[in-house]
Amino acid sequence: MNAEILAVGTELLMGQIANTNAQYLSRRFAELGIDVYYHSVVGDNPRRLKDALIRALERSDIVITTGGLGPTKDDLTKETIAEALGLPLVVHQESLDYIKAFFSKLNRPMCENNVKQAYLPAGSKVVPNRNGTAPGCIVEQGGKVVIMLPGPPKEMIPMFDETVFPYFEGKTGHIIGSRLVKVFGMGESEVETRLMDLVEQQSNPTIAPYVGYGDISLRVTAKCRNRDEAEALIAPVVEKIRERLGACVYSDSGESMEEVVLKLLSEKGWTLSTAESCTGGMLASRLINIPGASRVFDRGFVTYSNAAKVQELGVSQKTLEAFGAVSRETAEEMATRLVERTKTNAGLAVTGIAGPDGGTPEKPVGLVYVAACLNGRTESLKLNLRGDRERIRTVSCLHALDLLRRMLLGIQ
Amino acid sequence: MNAEILAVGTELLMGQIANTNAQYLSRRFAELGIDVYYHSVVGDNPRRLKDALIRALERSDIVITTGGLGPTKDDLTKETIAEALGLPLVVHQESLDYIKAFFSKLNRPMCENNVKQAYLPAGSKVVPNRNGTAPGCIVEQGGKVVIMLPGPPKEMIPMFDETVFPYFEGKTGHIIGSRLVKVFGMGESEVETRLMDLVEQQSNPTIAPYVGYGDISLRVTAKCRNRDEAEALIAPVVEKIRERLGACVYSDSGESMEEVVLKLLSEKGWTLSTAESCTGGMLASRLINIPGASRVFDRGFVTYSNAAKVQELGVSQKTLEAFGAVSRETAEEMATRLVERTKTNAGLAVTGIAGPDGGTPEKPVGLVYVAACLNGRTESLKLNLRGDRERIRTVSCLHALDLLRRMLLGIQ
Hints:
The structure is a homodimer.
Chain A: E1 2-8, H1 10-13, H2 20-32, E2 35-42, H3 46-59, E3 62-66, H4 77-85, E4 89-91, H5 93-105, E5 119-121, E6 125-127, E7 136-141, E8 144-149, H6 153-172, E9 175-184, H7 188-201, E10 206-211, E11 215-224, H8 227-245, E12 249-251, H9 257-268, E13 272-276, H10 282-288, E14 297-303, H11 306-313, H12 317-323, H13 328-342, E15 346-352, E16 367-374, E17 377-384, H14 389-409
């Protein structure tokens, strides 16, 4: 089976938003083992939408549309597709009741326009929408499947996950289980080399790598009859990946590096503080973006100026003068003094040159030192990073967190 | 004239990346006054690429492809399109020399594969690539234009801006000037209402709104014979927008809120510090992401725990007990004490409940107070924000910066 993703919306053709829905759906279809050969985007124009639909049905088994299910007169996806398929639109009472209840909960009057959202092609299967007023639908006709979902990702994604994904599991007679293995501290080509035979030999489960901003994710996906069978197939492959990549695997359940570090600290009832120069609050910010971080994260310092490093952390003027603000000695002293002053169990420090200015031949842009102090022991790393300011800062944060993770786990 | 954007790359169909190139190009074509009616994506598959190209040439005047110009055997865009157009590929000596120099500068040997990157369809106009080895090209045939650009945005965007955009300016006989007006503190519908007649009446320049994460951008675009004429057309429209939206316009040259605030402080030689609770370093991080921030930004505190607010900033235990950590009183005291302790000219403080947990009926998720202290005077704002943790934190940062901006400019 193969699928085509057809997005409808002039805002996409005007460049006001990126087609992230197509990316999400493509990933999920890959997990289902359904090939996606085409993405298409058309505007809110019935003629071009109809042409695109006919073309898509000629070349694909499944056509999934996003967008154009709103209440306005520009929203014509359902009307256009129903006409192209020769199906009348009929009211779906449950959806109409839901839309009415949706507005009364918000204490807002329902517009007459919203009634049209409850009309669906006759014989279609409804895809409920918990987060908005536009239901989606699934139409089967002549061996083809047409699925219509709304455009806003916050509505579309849960609708796909809760109704459309299980629909295809039911259709294909198998369910899909998957786990996301997260890797840091090893380059893309090294990961590929170490896993190449696994990736090539494995057909169930499959292993698909995604290269992120400084880290790599490996999606392990199994097709099975039930969840237990999926887990039984996936677990040994995850084990093999762990054997090949060692301590560079920081999660086998899709957690972010921040989540992993916060969890390790939380399990021991330990606290964390941060002292940042070039990352300038990004490290603290990433930690605090995890709900519940307050149990572990105590406080952070953005000591951008040398004076701040001395006054807030207690780094000695001597160290700064002898080695400079960007040095292993300063990084280690930042982490050590930080923990002393805040009486936290763990402290992380980052100092470096994120560019684009400020580099010298001895200390070029991308030179960053990270240090971690854990219960009295301090370790540090020297990094030479590539990329722009944003990338250097992001990857520095990951290295600092990873250093602490390794210390917490007793990994060299 | 109308254009179609045809992206080539299996990584797009696998959902490994989003098609941000299509968004960028669509925006730029809108500025050129060229309509984009279709986006398409196909994989690294010559048959489907050829079909998509033929289809695109039937329905569009301009076809611009991204991707598939790399050195590997999967990269087949040029070969496939040249064949479809009946054009031989011929070596472009200047590009070959450039590729050779590119590798010798990196001290890496050039692969034989890279030679094929210097072959272009006969008669095509080369689009030089400053940031990679794959040149692009422009082919004119039978009144149609086919343009091929590489996939990586860091290569594609400068190539489009430096060669393709001026090419269309030359073709259309006019140049395009544009300015980005940035707006904060006014809702999307309010902005639309205030500008509706301008947006509808204006045909040159045009006004196109883009809704961001908490702020709104208005692109004012003029078609003219030269830059001076463009500026003469744009300036009065920007003036009208300023009249309608008042102090909510924080930049008329595309600057971010951080840039605007740092510039205002820098002009006076003033310094800035931050004290953050729920934003947790995000405010400092955004400021420090601006190159040159070090001239203004002195230091920041992430005082997530109450103890940290007392110990690091000197907020009184009494205030915390009487009003709670999330209160106007605590926010103002954070900002005032911060400036006293750091001896900076300006201080920004944020405290609030970013969720998803921690809300109560009296202090729900999304309740945030921001305060700014400027040379001894402290002002604050109470916010009730919607959205998830990330959005609440982001919008809080913008409000804090905007409060300081207004104080710096003496705007009520």
